[in-house]
UniProtKB/TrEMBL annotation:
The keyword Transmembrane helix applies. Gene3D superfamilies: MetI-like. This is Carbohydrate ABC transporter permease. The lineage of its organism: Bacteria, Bacillati, Actinomycetota, Actinomycetes, Kitasatosporales. One of its GO terms (biological process) is transmembrane transport.
């Protein structure tokens, strides 16, 4: 004969005294959801407008297109030489990023590892350049490039090289400052161990310090690339029709008679693809580099 089953009551879960109340959790979720929707709303408007005919974009605003078309994505390459602008932007931003990272690595390693006369003056001077607005350097750089071209024949004004040098003046101070703090967090004992194993200063730098500071280097590279990729002011002054970049070339969709807003939105989405892809691929290193560089 089977014995009657006895139901054991389950112990009630007690909330931790340190846990926030449920009302706070729901309020936070609602707020974050609303904030996410607010941030994604312009992206939706841009994407939906890129799929609309020009009549829908030029007239009254509509949330949904009356006709979905991919024609704007095909026309953006014909209305303006977008492929050439895209190539110029990749060359300028990529070269500025590589030069900024390489120079910042050597400068930050010297500041963080060696004592030399004028070290403090150098650090203060590098950081002080960040206090001035970029437009303040526009006329001096323009005159310098023109004078160098007239006296030496080196065409800096209107060339990709001049634009790369311009972007280096803005990305290098932050890059050096951030990598200096990151390199300073790497123990000097690792350098000494590398010297014992037969490495010179450069060997210790590239075999020990650089791998340990990889997140910071990635963060610096992303910052330098972003500085050069979306800049408009200097690119509009320092370039010509041949060396024009994407940020300036997008103005070509606005003619004297009309503005092709659907093509503007489509081109803006195409332009943002490299940046978004870079963030997604390097997100782990970028967050780690910015966090560590901010506290060390």
């Amino acid at each position: 004969m089977a014995s009657p089953s006895v139901r054991v009551p389950r112990p009630s879960r007690r909330r931790s005294p340190m846990a926030p109340p449920r009302s706070f959790l729901w309020t936070r979720r609602i707020f974050l959801t609303a904030l996410t929707g607010f941030v994604l709303l312009p992206v939706y408007v841009m994407f939906s407008s890129s799929l609309k005919p020009l009549e829908d974009v030029s007239g009254a605003f509509r949330w949904l297109p009356s006709e979905v078309t991919i024609r704007p994505y095909l026309d953006i390459w014909k209305t303006v030489p977008l492929a050439r602008y895209f190539t110029n932007s990749l060359i300028v931003a990529g070269s500025a990023t590589v030069c900024s990272v390489v120079i910042a690595i050597f400068a930050a390693y010297a500041v963080s590892r060696y004592r030399f006369r004028g070290k403090r003056v150098f650090t203060v001077t590098v950081l002080s350049t960040q206090m001035f607005p970029g437009i303040l350097f526009l006329l001096p750089l323009f005159l310098i490039f023109v004078n160098i071209g007239n006296s030496t024949g080196i065409p800096l004004y209107g060339s990709r090289g001049g634009l790369i040098l311009t972007y280096l003046t803005f990305s290098l101070p932050f890059s050096i400052w951030m990598l200096t703090g990151y390199f300073a967090s790497v123990p000097r004992e690792l350098d000494e161990a590398a010297h014992v194993d037969g490495c010179g200063p450069l060997g210790a730098l590239f075999r020990v310090v650089v791998p340990a500071a990889l997140p910071g280097i990635v963060a610096v590279a992303v910052y330098a690339f972003m500085t050069a990729w979306g800049e408009v002011l200097f690119a509009s002054v320092m370039t010509n029709d041949t060396t024009r970049t994407l940020s300036v070339g997008l103005q070509g969709y606005a003619t004297q008679n009309d503005v092709y807003w659907n093509q503007v939105m489509a081109a803006s989405l195409v332009v943002s693809v490299p940046v978004v892809a870079g963030f997604l691929l390097l997100q782990r290193y970028l967050v780690a580099g910015l966090t560590a560089g901010a506290v060390k």
